[in-house]
Amino acid sequence: MQPNPVLKNLGFSADDRVVIIHTDDIGMCQASVDAFADLAEFGLISSGAVMVPCPWFLEAAAYAREHPGADLGVHLTLTSEYERYRWAPLSTRDPASGLLDEGGFFHKATPDVWAKADPEAAIVELETQISRALGEGMNLTHIDTHMGSIAHPAIIPGYIQLAIKYGLPPMIPRLSADELMGVGNVDQATAQMIREMVNTLEEMGMPLLDGLTALQLVDPEDRFEQAKRALSALKPGLTHFIIHPAKDTPELRQIMPTWACRVADYETFMSEATREFIRDEGIQVIGYQALKDLMPNSL
Fold first, then answer.
1. Residue 239 resides in a domain
2. How confident is the model at residue 175 (pLDDT cuts 50, 70, 90)?
3. What's this model's pTM, rounded to 2 decimal places?
4. How far apart are CA 270 and CA 223, in angstroms?
5. Domain that residue 252 falls in
6. In the chain, how many domains are there?
7. Closest CA relative to residue 202, chosen from 183, 174, 177
8. CB–CB of 106/114 below 8 Å?
9. 3-state class of 214 per DSSP?
10. Exposure pattern of 254-273 as b/e (b: 16+ CB <10 Å)?
11. Best CA proximity match to 206, nearest among 288, 119, 123
């Protein structure tokens, strides 16, 4: 595959390792909003995305209004994965939409969304979330996806159209079909469709990523060492690097079993040692605003 044109357009070489250090799940709970505020001030992370249907979205939006330079997008949400802490669609309460589970919330798992959701209803919901964020005064820089729920053949074209309509770079990597199957938990047909879409989008001049990676929400121990290994493994090109930081609160501990990993992410990326490691590795950190600035006006 040819080098990513985004690198040249941003003044990097094809051999540079460029990364967007991205904070997911902002607004899911208070601890996620407070963590982002601290991390943004510390200056090591470079972007984040808010979950508009979630209980603390309005606090995240207030932060965005007070900090208009914050690099924030919409973490487009079609799932609600926890047992006793749930959220629901903004656009409909109609069971016929297929967006609701038996309790009236989003489905807990992405395969259930793919099996049950009406694609048109899903796309309406995605646009409603973008519109709500804009309506709350957010200066959006991109769109991405919670739990990969947009990665379905009947939904992802609508996701792309929303990116074009609102002038927001989408989180889409320039990967082969086999690579997409590995990182996206999608089948071969979907991966091939995304690959063909990537070719078309790149011809249109849309800025795209080279890869996606994340600190997995599995083991909170030695998180700094995990981060160092993941960052050291970055390949040349532009990578979306996902973390899920949150401050340690009683609420967070009650909501999710992965709370310790999230607290460890917060502590790791509030560390001067992590900053020094990234600098010493020669990794270049950018935000999504740089990609938004490259969005072609003709789309």
1. yes
2. confident
3. 0.95
4. 12
5. 5-292
6. 1
7. 174
8. no
9. strand
10. ebbebbbbbbbbbbbbbbee
11. 288
In a domain, 10, yes or no: yes
Dihedral Cα 53, 59, 62, 63, nearest 10 deg: -110
Confidence at residue 184, expressed as pLDDT on a 0 to 100 scale: 61
Residue 218 has pLDDT above 90, yes or no: yes
- CATH code of residue 111: 3.20.20.370
Per DSSP, 109 falls in state S
Q: Are the beta carbons of 276 and 231 closer than 8 angstroms?
A: no
Tell me which H or E stretch contains 41.
Answer: helix 30-42
Residue partners of 83: CB distance under 8 A and separation at least 6:
none
Residue 65 lies in a domain: yes
Pair of tokens at residue 64: 């965005």
In one letter, which amino acid is 134?
A: L
Is residue 297 situated within a structural domain? no
List beta partners, residue 213.
241
